[in-house]
Write a structure and sequence with these properties.
The chain is an alpha/beta fold. It has one domain: 3-Layer(aba) Sandwich (Rossmann fold), CATH 3.40.50.360. The chain is globular. It binds flavin mononucleotide. Flavin mononucleotide binds next to helix 1, helix 2 and strand 6.
Length: about 180
């Protein structure tokens, strides 16, 4: 069975934008996952932390830095259903840039699934640094997966990133449907 999954991690709460701090219930990366879902019709898995980071930005950056520096792999709130992953061919992996790399909980997720032969398409939202070294980290964790060139989306523009996502899908030969206006 050929399967495509969109897995994403996104944090609600305080984020920084060029206009200053903004609090939102829906995180930047969640918007990109929603755009992908609308365009591809693929199933979605939300990567959640069993103990989420703070909604307060500075505190969250401290927590994420600690986890990175100490190679902590935070526990997932929910594991994906193994039957949903059977025959997985394409994985859209959406995440925010954390300290220029993958959020550690995304590493937990990747280490917990079989990615041999899976085509991984990384989509990273960021605050100015682009995709950072997150692609190298994915390649290290998933040495037997095929990694497509990732898409970097500025976090505060994520909600309106449909056009960028569309072009990226076309560049990667992924079929999509245009939702009715
Ligand atoms: C813990 C933490 C670390 C971050 N580190 C970086 C960074 O190194 N470079 C960067 O460009 N943006 C960084 N950002 C900004 C986020 O990547 C950006 O706001 C992202 O869109 C947040 O996605 P989310 O709302 O889905 O969680 C960081 C944000 C947080 C919370």
């Amino acid at each position: 069975m050929s399967r495509t999954l969109i897995a994403y991690y996104s944090r609600s709460g305080e984020n920084y934008t060029p206009q200053g701090p903004v609090k939102s219930r829906i995180g930047n990366t969640a918007w990109t996952a929603q755009i992908l879902e609308e365009l591809t019709g693929a199933d979605v898995f939300k990567i959640d932390m069993a103990q989420p980071y703070s909604e307060e930005y500075e505190e969250c950056t401290r927590q994420a830095k600690y986890d990175r520096e100490n190679a902590v792999l935070p526990e997932l709130k929910n594991r994906p259903d193994p039957t949903e992953l059977e025959g997985l061919e394409t994985l859209f992996l959406c995440y925010p840039n954390y300290w220029n790399g993958l959020p550690m909980v995304v590493q937990t997720f990747l280490r917990g699934i079989k990615t041999k032969g899976v085509r991984i398409l990384p989509l990273c939202t960021h605050g100015g640094d682009g995709i950072g070294f997150s692609e190298q980290e994915i390649a290290e964790i998933c040495p037997n997966a095929t990694l497509a060139p990732g898409l970097a989306v500025e976090g505060h523009l994520a909600r309106g990133a449909r056009q960028d996502v569309l072009i990226w899908l076309m560049q990667n030969g992924i079929a999509f449907q245009q939702p009715e206006e």
